[in-house]
Amino acid sequence: AQTVTQSQPEMSVQEAETVTLSCTYDTSESDYYLFWYKQPPSRQMILVIRQEAYKQQNATENRFSVNFQKAAKSFSLKISDSQLGDAAMYFCAYRQANTGNQFYFGTGTSLTVIP
Amino acid sequence: KAGVTQTPRYLIKTRGQQVTLSCSPISGHRSVSWYQQTPGQGLQFLFEYFSETQRNKGNFPGRFSGRQFSNSRSEMNVSTLELGDSALYLCASSLSIGSATFDGEQFFGPGTRLTVL
Average pLDDT, stretch B79-108? Predict the structure, then answer.
């Protein structure tokens, strides 16, 4: 079974600084998708960024970017110019292609932004 | 376009009872997935329904069941509740057009907080 590991239960960053959240996954498949979701306190989970495994180029969404290392099975999230609103639980998720919507999530990283 | 809605938002039950949770997906979405979120285990996949059929199933006991209606609305049922079933239950919907290139983005609802006493 696929597993997703987030080894940093908690992280903190100064406002306006950059932080990187780590994620590794284990799979024998070659075609899959990776996601980072954000869950603010008592609020809905929302998609931050996604990466298709067949794409070599790292995905970028404004201040959010990923470092996707397929051979190493690593998928880290970099948040630049951190803002107070970035404080949340961040989940890394994996979904195999062509098998429907069965997502495997990591246990999450709680990000604190210090003013 | 309205987002994913879940009812009820909060629920308190006692051990041995059963409970039914409801999820209304985004209009046009055909896939509905359910997750259990607990502090210790994180998010764990329960099952996915697509066009009224269970397409994927996680590793949960048979006490957990679900169904999907023709309008894509889904219900999840837990019978013989146990203390360990206390959790936030999240529903997520996806367009899921069946394309191999589709990214399978899921949109999550606010969840139902179930407390079992």
Answer: 82
Residue B78 half-sphere exposure toward CB, CA atoms < 13 A: 28
Instruction: Report the pLDDT value the prediction gives residue A41, as an integer from 0 to 100.
Output: 87
Nearest to A44 among B31, B100, B110 (CB): B110
Contacts (Cβ under 8 Å, ≥6 apart) of B91: B4, B6, B21, B23, B25, B32, B33, B34, B35, B74, B76, B108, B109, B111
In this prediction, residue B97 carries a pLDDT of 63
B6 touches A at CB < 8 Å = no
**In the predicted model, what is the mean pLDDT of residues A19-25?**
98
* Type of residue numbered A55: K
